[in-house]
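chain and backbone:
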Amino acid sequence: MRIAVFSDTHGLTAPMVDAVSRCRPDAIVHLGDHDRDTGVLLKQFPEIPLYNVAGNCDFAALAPNVMTVSFGPVKAFLTHGHLYHVDYGRVDSLVYAAQEAGCQLALFGHTHCPFHEDVGGVKVVNPGTAGKGRTLTWALLTVFDNGGIAVEMKELEHGLR
């Protein structure tokens, strides 16, 4: 199963739409800032399941702050990250929340910095920013039938603004 993960699009949707068009994932995750950007994905790719959470810039959002979802044999904890203080460079409270929820994968954004690491038995992934920054990035995850998770960090094309 292949999952395209985006965060912090901040209204810039064209590069994200292009990436989804090219990779045709089995699922899409948007981790907030701006959750309304997911409407573009829903319209363009109604056949692909989409999971999204609200970020710190999403006022009056309809999306939840936290969500758990299963991708095959892997349970994932989705959040923007600001509620877990990830902006201080630590992921311990995020990892703890994912562990408490029985998740093997924690996806977050907020910092605009791509990151992936195994911490306390949880694969922690931040796709970086897909909308605001010098380098726009996203993550392509592959979840295998045995529960293994591969992470590829990818760059988006700036010319699609």
